[in-house]
């Protein structure tokens, strides 16, 4: 928490005068907290004052802190949101309901790094990683509701939460790369020569995390972050928040400098976050509940499965012809037409009761969802820890190298991918999915989550294609295991699974009832 504010303060004088060196005075008479710190405090106050963590209270906190420090250096769109909401652009995302917010303020589809700079307290107070992701999402989407804006905040909060819970740097790096697609296979020396001022999350958060990964203590993290140049105060704010959580201490001379720069009520909130964070660590750990979901769970939302006779997509088309990287190269129009049809179908679908119940269970359990589905219905229902083992149709990538992180980006489901549209490497843009003639990506995180599960639940997958066939057998012998499906798949080497012979929507209700009985 304090580490983020220190990073912002140290970086404040280098934002428009990059130094590209680790040899510089940490503080000068002009070093002061900027908008990064002001909004960090606003989010922290929101977390402390509102147990429900509502958007209305968050807005009140942000407006109050912003008006208290009107010259803190806010960006143009955020400044309009803060001070002149009547002049804010008319963008409103139908996916989010902000009708209860009493003013004219609304999210404006920002992917700026302001969402990542203000969320450090989310990683401190959360009891679970899933909760850290949810709090970060809420703190971001009130203004920065573009997927990249939300992703930047979640990556920052996740790194802080993991650091607080004694994850190694390698664990943090692997998680952030796999979950958010950031390229962390670089070091500061790789970045520094060509780095420039970039206010986007995607151009700031990875670099900030790399500065932390390259460091050896808190001060070195701060110095490395400033040395990269760019948007120095914001980048170093993000790095400082993660470094403090990981190294568990800040040198006393640095803290003494901050005592001269922060008012007493700032310290009250900072210490309040630390107290809340200690309670979070002391809270008994929740049971780890892992879901492996397949097409059956989305079928009840109107999305056809690949295996259903007569109605399944594989009955209507030849999958090797339409879900093939080779065919994409030969006949891109045919393949893209097929995927655009599927993408539009997903856009028109809504999460069903099963998706929503699983999301609600995050209040009680530490939940991870490993899905074979390429839709975003779990995310839209409110789930946070979702791992797509077969890809995600909300994203596009390069036809030359689908794992090139510089080419992976969000793409609206209701907008067709066109022949001739190019990825960053100049190749044809394509859906970010695993096609029938392609190999699966590394599944290290998914495998680890299943092996650590206290309860493992399979919903709506035949386990006959892709990753499902081997993931289903990885749970510990001590774990409680369930299959929710009208078809009994226990003969597929799953004799110790309890079968709930129902479709997903009613089967999840029975699962919840059974888990409640177990707890008694």
Short description:
The chain has 25 helices and nine strands. Strands 3-2-1-7-8-9 form a six-stranded parallel beta sheet, sandwiched between helices. A three-stranded antiparallel beta sheet has the order 5-4-6, covered by helices on one side.
What does this structure look like?
This protein is an alpha/beta fold and 520 residues long. The chain folds into two domains: 2-282, ADP-ribosylation/Crystallin J1 (ADP-ribosylglycohydrolase fold); 288-519, TPP-binding domain (Rossmann fold, 3-Layer(aba) Sandwich). Helix content is 47%, strand content 8%. The protein has helices at residues 2-11, 35-49, 55-68, 76-83, 114-117, 120-125, 129-141, 147-164, 169-180, 188-191, 205-214, 218-227, 232-247, 252-259, 264-282, 295-299, 313-316, 319-322, 325-330, 332-348, 353-360, 377-381, 444-452, 468-471, 504-519; strands at 288-293, 366-371, 386-388, 391-398, 409-410, 429-433, 455-459, 480-484, 498-500. The strands form two sheets. Strands 3-2-1-7-8-9 form a six-stranded parallel sheet, with helices on both faces. Strands 5-4-6 form a three-stranded antiparallel sheet, covered by helices on one side. Helix 7 (129-141) runs antiparallel to helix 8 (147-164), helix 8 (147-164) runs antiparallel to helix 9 and helix 21 packs parallel to helix 25 (504-519). It is globular, with a radius of gyration of 23 Å. Mean pLDDT is 89; it is low at 91-96 and 98-102.
